[in-house]
C-alpha cells in the first residue's frame, strides 16, 4: 500500500482525498518510481478542484510533475536507484500522476534528474518553470536579444510568471511584470521586475493596435490580456502564449500580425519532444538563480495540497508549491 491523492467522480460527486492505495491498482508502465516530491501547477489545481476538465479517467492520481527514484524497471534506459524527473505527457490527466508516494510510468516519459538540481529544486521549477524556459527559448529562436527592449510577463506572481521573470532578468532583459496583486510588488522586484503594472490595464477589451512598447512577451493569461499585449507589441516583436488563467478566448484582430509583423508563438509543455526538454533543463541549470528559486518556492504536505490547490485556482498562491508526498 502507498499514500496518494485520489480523485473520484461518481453519483456522490467529484472529490479528491488522501487514501491508502494498493500497489495492484497502479497503472501499466515499464518503470516504477518512488516519488520524493511533486508540485502544484495550475493544471493540478483544476484537476483537484474539478474546476476544469483536466482529468480524463477516474479514479485518478493527479500531479503532472514527479521527482523520484526508480524502484523497478523493465526499460533498458533505467535501473533501480536512478534519480528521475517527469513533467507532463498526460500524467495526472489520463495516467496516474505524482501526488502519491509511488507511480508507474512509461520510461520514455522520464528524463534523468538534472545534476544541477536536487529533486526538490527540480519540482520547484516543475512544469511551470520548464514552460517559462520554453517561452524564453521561443523568444530567442525568433532572434530576440536583451537590447531589443522590454519583455512583459503576465500572471507575474504565479509559477510560470515568477520563473520567467527570474530567468529573463538573469539573461539581461528589462522585465515588466503584470500582476493583480500589488502586495507582491516587493517580491516581483526582488525577482527582477523593473516595473509592475496592474493587470486591470490589460484585462478589458482594447483597440486592435495601441502604442508600441514590448519587444517580447510571456503571457499566461490569454483572453483580452493576450489581445492587448499583441496590440502593444513593437514592430517585429515576439509574443509567447502559454496559458489561459484569464480565459481560453483570444479576442484579437490580425492588425498586430499584418501591420507590425508581430509573431505569436504557441507554447506547449505536455507533448514537447524529449530533446527539447533536455535543452530546457540545461538552460535552467545555467540561467535560473537557485537563490531566487528558493524565494519562489514553498512546501506543503500531501494532505495540505488539496486545500492549496483551491487557493491556487483563486489566484492566491504566490510562486511555486512543492509537495512533499511523504509527509
Ligand atoms: P499560477 O496559478 O501559479 O499562476 C497564474 C497567475 O495568473 C496567477 O498567480 C495570477 O497572477 C494570474 N491570474 C490568475 N487568474 C487571473 C485572471 N482571471 N486574470 C488575469 N490574471 C490571472 O499558474 P501557473 O503559473 O502554473 O500557470 C499559468 C498558466 O499557464 C495557466 O493557465 C496554465 O494552465 C498555463 N500553463 C500552460 C502550460 C503549457 O504547456 N502551455 C504549462 C504550464 C502552465 P497575478 O496574481 O500576479 O496577477
Question: Overview of this structure, please?
Answer:
The protein is α/β, with parallel strands linked by helices and 327 residues long. It folds into two domains: 147 residues, Medium-chain alcohol dehydrogenases, catalytic domain (Quinone Oxidoreductase, Chain A, domain 1, Alpha-Beta Complex); 141 residues, Rossmann fold. It is 31% helix and 28% strand. It has ten helices and 15 strands. Strands 3, 4, 5, 6, 7, 14 and 15 form a seven-stranded mixed sheet that branches. Strands 10-9-8-11-12-13 form a six-stranded parallel sheet, with helices on both faces. It has a two-stranded antiparallel ribbon with strand order 1-2. Helix 3 links the parallel strand 8 and strand 9. The longest helix has 23 residues. The mean pLDDT is 98.
Q: What's the CATH superfamily of the largest domain, by name?
A: Medium-chain alcohol dehydrogenases, catalytic domain
Give the uncertain stretches in residue-range form: none
Which ions, cofactors or small ligands are bound in this entry? Answer: NADPH dihydro-nicotinamide-adenine-dinucleotide phosphate
Helix content: 25-40%
Sum up the overall morphology in one term. Answer: globular
Main pleated-sheet profile: 7 strands, mixed
Distance between the termini: 15 Å
Mean pLDDT: 98
Backbone CA Rg: 20 Å
CATH architecture of the largest domain: Alpha-Beta Complex
Secondary-structure element pattern, one letter each: EEEHEEEEHEHEHEHEHEHEHHEHE
**Alpha-beta content class:** alpha/beta
SS summary, helix count: 10
CATH class of the largest domain: Alpha Beta
For this structure, the CATH topology of the largest domain is Quinone Oxidoreductase, Chain A, domain 1
Number of structural domains: 2
Taken as a percent bin, the fraction of beta residues is 25-35%
DSSP strand count: 15
